[in-house]
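Whiteboard transcription, Tuesday session. T.W. wrote the structure tokens on the left side:
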């Protein structure tokens, strides 16, 4: 039965949503089943988030971290199962995708260590910048994680501005911003995992509309893994994804948006990441501005994030999360409407 199912998936992988949906299903199951084991390991190793560490914490009792290990495992297993069947006659894992997964694995490990040793913000930033630079140098004829041009609509026609030597730093900075904002918004049970599910799911649809099946499959793996983890992370959370989880989700989605969403029509290419990642980016922007205005270092943690503001209004964690889910879903719906309109 399984071989027949896999053959069917392989035969139709280049069309529609069948392969992405099957990939997401595998990622959901693997991450869901793997998370309790990772939770036990985190507790045994002392990777636990203590609410007494600072006043930013909104949970009341120690919660184990390291959920990113389960998320990463779900993504890798799902892609390892589906990709060979989806691409039986060509390279299933081109250089750019292999480098994405390897570097994401490195970030999961660094994030897990950060959960234990609390690295300084400068070290974390350096690691993310280096990851954003490194991923650009692994590519082939199939694809590359690099922003080479900016597209602008001028009088109804597509106009492109080549970045040239600035392509590497611009790409690295973009990857850093998306990855770090996914980390900073992870302050309430289920928030980052839910946002990642919605955003990655949106990238799936955009990729299908744009005729990019490989991107759709990878995005589906990310969405499925985030959703599988969300079952354990939704309030009241049994485990947190930790720095590693936020890093792997943010990094992979940032890279994927470069390979996929930023290759859409020039008239909308710049809008897509702004809309899909709009809430985490807006949250980070608002926090930085408020810290600067108050004379506080921008790297100093505080309770100025959107979720803290909503909690301060008297909302519960679940109400706060649902409001931010709705905001993310609304922006993603706008992105899909725009992309769909450019492919009709």
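and on the right, the sequence the group agreed on:
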């Amino acid at each position: 039965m399984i071989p027949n199912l896999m053959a069917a998936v392989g035969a139709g992988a280049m069309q529609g949503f069948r392969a992405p949906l099957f990939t997401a299903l595998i990622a959901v199951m693997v991450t869901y089943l793997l998370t309790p084991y990772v939770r036990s390991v985190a507790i045994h190793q002392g990777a636990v988030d203590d609410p007494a560490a600072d006043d930013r914490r909104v949970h009341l009792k120690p919660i184990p971290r390291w959920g990113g290990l389960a998320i990463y495992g779900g993504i890798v297993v799902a892609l390892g199962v589906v990709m060979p069947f989806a691409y039986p006659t060509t390279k299933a894992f081109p250089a750019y995708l292999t480098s994405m997964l390897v570097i994401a694995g490195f970030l999961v490990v660094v994030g897990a260590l950060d959960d234990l040793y609390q690295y300084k913000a400068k070290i974390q930033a350096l690691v993310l910048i280096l990851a954003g630079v490194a991923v650009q140098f692994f590519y082939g004829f199939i694809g590359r994680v690099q922003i080479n041009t900016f597209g602008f609509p001028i009088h109804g026609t597509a106009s492109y501005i080549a970045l040239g030597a600035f392509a590497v730093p611009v790409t690295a900075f973009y990857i850093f911003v998306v990855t770090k904002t996914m980390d900073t918004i992870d302050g309430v049970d289920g928030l980052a995992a839910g946002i990642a599910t919605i955003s990655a799911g949106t990238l799936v649809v955009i990729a299908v509309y744009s005729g990019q099946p490989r991107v759709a499959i990878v995005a589906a793996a990310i969405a499925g893994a985030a959703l599988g983890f969300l079952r354990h992370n939704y309030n009241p959370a049994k485990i947190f994804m930790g720095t590693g989880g936020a890093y792997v989700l943010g990094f992979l989605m940032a890279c994927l948006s470069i390979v996929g969403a930023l290759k859409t029509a020039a008239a909308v290419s710049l809008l897509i990441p702004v809309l899909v990642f709009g809430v985490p980016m807006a949250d980070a922007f608002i926090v930085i501005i408020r810290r600067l205005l108050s004379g506080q270092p921008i790297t100093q943690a505080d309770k100025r994030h959107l979720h803290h503001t909503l909690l301060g209004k008297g909302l519960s964690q679940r109400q706060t999360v649902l409001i931010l889910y709705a905001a993310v879903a609304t922006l993603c719906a706008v992105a899909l409407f725009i992309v769909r309109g450019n492919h009709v």
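Someone added at the bottom: Residues 7-14 have pLDDT under 50 and may be disordered.
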